[in-house]
Input
Amino acid sequence: METPPDDWPYADEPTACAVCGTDDDRHITVESLGLVWGGAMDGGLPPTDVGDYSGTFEFRVCHDCWLSESINALEEAQTLVAREGRGRSGRPLALDNEKTAAAAKLDAERVAIATFRPLEFRSDPEREHVRSQDEAVESLLEAWFACE
Ligand SMILES: [Zn+2]
Output
């Protein structure tokens, strides 16, 4: 596996609760969320800064935070886009409030990268499609945080 750029904020390994920082042995590990969603985390990279990479995060959450901070909204979550929030073109239209609120409580420096690979584009339209998705997500996140 290639390694992420050095200046990315994320951890090498998930060793502590991404919300409160406790290293309690009783914890839940979430490893389904894609790299784009670092933009919702505290100190994470905005989608358009992820560049030509794809992958997933892995992070630990202690039992207390899982329930009392409602991080359980992220169980099995792959995207923060609301289920009904995808347009016909595939561009995301709305964020899932609960999931986005949960992701916003994660400290990016305690979140690790589980899988990581460079994107290989077969064509310029393909690259442009990914770019426009990233930009759409970024503007959704900006709007979401602006009305927090
Ligand atoms: Zn915790």
User: Anything to note?
Assistant: The first helix runs from residue 47 to 50. Residues 27-146 form one domain. The chain has a mean pLDDT of 92.
